[in-house]
Design brief:
Elements lengths: L1 H16 L5 H8 L21 E16 L4 E13 L15 E5 L8 E3 L2 E3 L8 E5 L3 E9 L1 E3 L11 E10 L7 E5 L3 H11 L6 E15 L2 E14 L2 H20 L9 H23 L9 H70 L2 H6 L1 H43 L2 H33 L1
Parallel strand pairs: 1-10
Antiparallel strand pairs: 1-2, 2-7, 2-8, 3-6, 4-9, 5-8, 6-7, 9-12, 11-12
Helix pairs in contact: 4-5, 4-6, 5-6, 6-8, 6-9
């Protein structure tokens, strides 16, 4: 009898080991079909006072975009939800060890969770199936492109750190019906996100923190899970394309003080640099949002530098005007006197030259034909002497004009070096403003960079 019983058990185990099972057998056992409304119409609890525990997990895959102009945060995340369906359970030993099956998402009830900050419907392909475990735990996994709003603080742009939230909660179920629990804590979610991170672009991911928040509305308590994404901007691109060019233009404006005020290049140079700063301000207007709680530091940086360069341009105009007042009228009188003297000398020299020319011509005409043959050589010498005597006054006249021009330039430069009261005031204003300008620029740059680093 014991031997027969042992043989019977062996045959039963052998038959069961040869049993073939399918997922459909489990579904038939559960009576789970597309027409079965018991699994998808209501919250799957046997006692309505029992809340459904929903465990949620979010992992960051990529930071697609952070748009400051519209204050929009677009991450690509992997979301996992798990809850218990009390209508579903089976013994894996009866179904060849099957512990988990996948079913279409429309066959079961799902928590009505949504993202409060989401402003655009997710159009990425969704996972069409959910997993069911033998103990009734339902798992839903999907990838999501979240287009959400984010209240950004661009005060320290481009050295800013942004924190954007994704708040997840139920639309109609309060705390008594659905409880939201984080599957992973903040450190674990941050670690997983760094391991699976695909791309970050301009932003560097720092931390993903999870917190639970409850609030009361309409005498009911509601629960939210808040995922906070902390990220830091990589400022190298903005420093190279924006901050350094403005600093270079400021340096050029400082160097323009070594250009002489007597020329027009200094004024034109300052105007050109000021227009270049204006173009960069237009670029900044396209980057920063139109509304912000605080004035961005970079806006203060650009406006103050623009104002300093504008003040420098006005100072250059004032100095140029003062320097032109003193020697403007003096130069006009001096040039008029020199011009009259030159005209008189030119007339006298022309008369002397004409008289000598007539004398030479009359002497040459009185010579007879026979004398011409014998006095060819002496006549040539006389003509050469006449030409030399005619050129000497011209050379002397040129030499005298050069000497007078030299005297005029010396007097002109001397008058500029000595200068009148306006020129002296212009020199003092230029020196004082240069000292003030350099001191203000250095102090301002120190304060602005200290504000960025704080």
């Amino acid at each position: 009898m014991p031997v027969a019983f042992c043989v019977l058990i062996f045959l039963t185990d052998w038959v069961s080991s040869q049993k073939v099972c399918s997922y459909q057998d489990v579904l038939d056992y559960l009576n789970l079909t597309t027409d079965s409304s018991v699994f998808k119409l209501t919250r799957p609890v046997l006692d309505h006072t029992h809340p459904t525990m929903v465990e949620l997990d979010i992992i960051l895959y990529a930071i697609l975009a952070v748009i400051e102009k519209t204050q929009t945060f677009i991450p690509f995340v992997w979301a996992t939800m798990m809850w218990n369906n009390e209508y579903i359970s089976w013994d894996p030993a009866q179904f060849c060890g099957i512990t988990q099956i996948s079913v279409p998402r429309d066959m079961l009830w799902k928590p009505d969770l949504f993202i409060y900050e989401m402003i655009q419907k997710d159009e990425s392909p969704q996972n069409p199936y959910m997993y069911i475990s033998y103990d009734g735990v339902v798992t839903s996994e999907e990838d999501m492109k979240v287009v959400s709003t984010c209240k950004m603080d661009v005060h320290k742009f481009p050295f800013d750190t942004q924190r954007c939230n994704i708040s997840i909660g139920s639309a109609i179920h309060c705390v008594d019906e659905i409880r939201l629990l984080p599957f992973s804590n903040s450190s674990r979610a941050t670690q997983f996100s760094r391991e699976v991170m695909k791309t970050q672009g301009e932003w560097e991911f720092l931390q993903l923190s999870v917190a639970s928040y409850n609030f009361t509305y309409d005498n009911k308590q509601w629960e939210h899970l808040i995922y906070t994404f902390t990220m830091k901007r990589r400022p190298l691109l903005h420093v190279i394309n924006f901050l350094l060019p403005i600093l270079f233009f400021l340096t050029l404006d400082l160097a323009s003080y070594f250009i002489s005020e007597h020329r027009g290049e200094k004024l034109g140079f300052k105007v050109t640099v000021l227009l270049a700063i204006s173009v960069l301000l237009l670029i900044l207007n396209d980057i920063l949002p139109s509304m912000s709680n605080k004035t961005p530091v970079i806006a203060t940086y650009c406006i103050v530098i623009f104002a300093l360069m504008l003040l420098s341009l006005l100072e250059t105009i004032l100095v140029t005007y003062l320097m032109e007042i003193d020697f403007g009228s003096h130069d006009k009188l001096e040039l008029k006197d020199n011009w009259e003297e030159k005209q008189e000398k030119v007339k006298i020299d022309d008369c002397n030259t004409e008289e000598k020319r007539r004398t030479c011509c009359s002497c040459i005409c009185k010579v007879s034909d026979g004398e011409r043959q014998h006095e060819v050589l002496p006549l040539g010498d006389e003509v050469n002497n006449t030409i030399q005597s005619r050129e000497s006054p011209v050379l002397l006249l040129i030499l005298e004009e050069l000497k007078e021009l030299q005297k005029t330039l010396d007097l002109h430069l001397g008058s500029r070096k000595e200068g009148g009261r306006s020129i002296q005031w212009a020199t003092r204003i230029n020196r004082g403003f240069f000292i003030f300008y350099v001191t203000t620029v250095l102090l301002f740059l120190f304060l602005i960079f200290n504000e960025w680093n704080s």
